[in-house]
Amino acid sequence: IHGSIIKNAEYDSIHIKQKELLLIKKNNLYGLSTLNGVDILSPQYEEIGDYSGGYFRVKQQGLYGYAARSGKVYIKPQFTEAGDFFNGHAIVRIQNAYVLINISGK
What whole-number distance in Å separates Cα of residue 105 and Cα of residue 51? Predict the structure, then answer.
């Protein structure tokens, strides 16, 4: 077997998250990287959910938001609870109310 190093040993752990994406962990924070070793989300999140409806649910400082596979954060973490996107919508909790949002966060 012949292989090459695509990611240096700078992370606490690396796992396959989804086709062509790695979940990386450093100092108890998570990020995403390509199989070629390019970070698309630096390790700054307490949690990264599964890819659903075109987005990953991310948790930062106890609040949830949403990021795309490209690494762009579409909705900054601001919700106390958040579900996955489905058909362009997700259910989130703001303070004491559950609301339905679209990808613009409205």
Answer: 17
CA distance 15 to 17: 6
Q: Give the Cα separation of 35 and 49 in Å (integer).
A: 19
Any idea what DSSP says for residue 69? T
**E-strand spans in 1-106?**
13-18, 21-26, 29-34, 39-45, 47-52, 55-60, 63-67, 73-79, 81-82, 90-94, 97-101
Q: How far is CA 2 from CA 5, 19, 86, in A?
A: 10, 22, 41
* Mean pLDDT per 10-residue segment, the chain (106 residues): 63 86 95 90 96 95 96 96 95 94 85
